[in-house]
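Subject: design request, 242 residues
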């Protein structure tokens, strides 16, 4: 049995973002990322600040932890990070959850392919716009989308681009034009990761949401799309483990 670097197991809560927003789910957050986005809201997974909290757990141990925390109150698990697509043997966890009739979602940025991607029930690929300071490897992203299409898994796949400014919006248009068959989501960027009063953050993020809606409404290239805030940020602010 392989061991996986795990930073958090929490829930049940709701999926606050994207293609299955509102879905009751548990979260498993893995450590380590091949990116270092300027505005990462989970930088503790890769910046060394939480390295003492990383546990190395087998699929069996993660499954046991999920049941310990979530009891019988869940049938859906979201794996996020960091970048869980760095983990080659993650099918050990995915298969085990599927055997228990638990659906599995996964969040990744589209920088790495893994052969277990087609087994994921809700695969969110979130390529990074210019404000992140990261550069998209279009060859890798093309390959991921093509392979999901070959496996007839596009209905289980979505693209989600976080938007902070007009340049990011142009990037989103480019992504949507390149992969028109893939369900497409635009997400409000949270640019205030220090705010610890949920009410203040919610009010700011709703203003940002209105700005983003106005921009998307005015665009001729963004028609078959959905625009969403991070619902968990509206409800709980920058709190961890929700
Ligand atoms: C923390 S990442 C982990 C998964 C993977 N590394 C990725 O980026 O897709 C989960 C999601 O949160 C989004 N995200 C990160 N920081 C954010 C922020 N400040 N505001 C809005 N969304 C953010 C990412 O774009 C991604 O869609
Ligand atoms: N409720 C909730 N929804 C989420 N959707 C994506 C998350 C993530 O950090 O990957 C996340 C998270 O951390 N909490
Ligand atoms: S890819 Fe995801 S986890 Fe990695 S730095 Fe960017 S937002 Fe954070
Ligand atoms: Mg998050």
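Subject: RE: design request

Done. Sequence follows.
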């Amino acid at each position: 049995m392989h061991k996986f670097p795990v930073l958090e197991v929490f829930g049940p809560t709701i999926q606050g973002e994207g293609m299955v927003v509102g879905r009751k789910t548990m979260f498993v957050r893995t450590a380590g990322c091949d990116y270092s986005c300027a505005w990462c809201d989970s930088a503790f997974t890769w910046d060394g600040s939480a390295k003492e909290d990383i546990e190395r757990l087998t699929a069996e141990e993660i499954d046991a932890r999920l049941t310990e925390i979530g009891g019988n109150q869940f049938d859906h698990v979201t794996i996020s990070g960091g970048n869980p697509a760095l983990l080659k043997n993650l099918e050990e966890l995915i298969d085990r959850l599927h055997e228990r009739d638990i659906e599995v979602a996964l969040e990744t940025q589209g920088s790495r392919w893994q052969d277990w991607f087609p087994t994921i029930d809700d695969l969110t690929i979130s390529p990074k716009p210019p404000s992140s300071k990261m550069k998209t490897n279009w060859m890798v992203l093309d390959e991921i989308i093509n392979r999901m299409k070959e496996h007839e898994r596009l209905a289980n796949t979505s693209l989600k681009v976080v938007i902070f400014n007009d340049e990011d919006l142009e990037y989103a248009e480019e992504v949507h034009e390149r992969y028109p068959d893939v369900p497409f989501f635009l997400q409000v960027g949270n640019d205030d990761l220090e705010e610890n009063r949920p009410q203040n953050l919610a009010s700011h993020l709703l203003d940002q949401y209105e700005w983003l809606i106005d921009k998307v409404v005015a665009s001729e290239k963004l028609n078959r799309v959905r625009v969403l805030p991070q619902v968990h940020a509206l409800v709980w602010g920058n709190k961890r483990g929700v």
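Residues 41-42 surround magnesium ion (ligand 4) (CB under 6 Å).
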